[in-house]
């Protein structure tokens, strides 16, 4: 994973942030789950003046749906993401080319795990 460049980061950019630590015994970021997030603003910590990023991040809610929360992270814990390219690849494999087709597609019983793609669509990164 590649860390973001705090100086070049702009509001509205898509980033990846840590959501849940599922294996504390693992080294580094290996035991973490990550979520896509949209940058709201850049800030500085009041305690130690370190660069921080305030994001609106995706949190799992239910099958093919999500909730969001606003959360602040130190800039060293915010990473670049290629989620848009991966989502486009997955959608192309299933011949989904429009927003309407996507919403019909996720209504099928055999389709799960599309909450992150729905987040990208709702935030304007796809279609």
Brief rundown of the structure:
The chain has helices at 83-93, 99-105, 115-122, and strands at 14-21, 32-44, 51-62, 65-74. With 127 residues, the protein is an alpha+beta fold.
Task: Explain how this protein is built.
This protein is an alpha+beta fold. The protein is 20% helix and 34% strand. The protein contains 3 helices and 4 strands, in the order E-E-E-E-H-H-H. It has helices at residues 83-93, 99-105, 115-122, and strands at 14-21, 32-44, 51-62, 65-74. It has a 4-stranded antiparallel β-sheet. It is globular.
Could you tell me the strand content as a percent range? Answer: 25-35%
Alpha carbon gap, first and last residue:
26 Å
Question: What strand line-up does the widest sheet have?
Answer: 1-2-3-4
Give the rounded overall mean pLDDT: 86
Along the chain, the helix and strand elements come as EEEEHHH
Report the biggest beta sheet as strand number plus sense, adding barrel if it closes. 4 strands, antiparallel
Structural class computed from helices and strand pairing: alpha+beta
Number of strands: 4
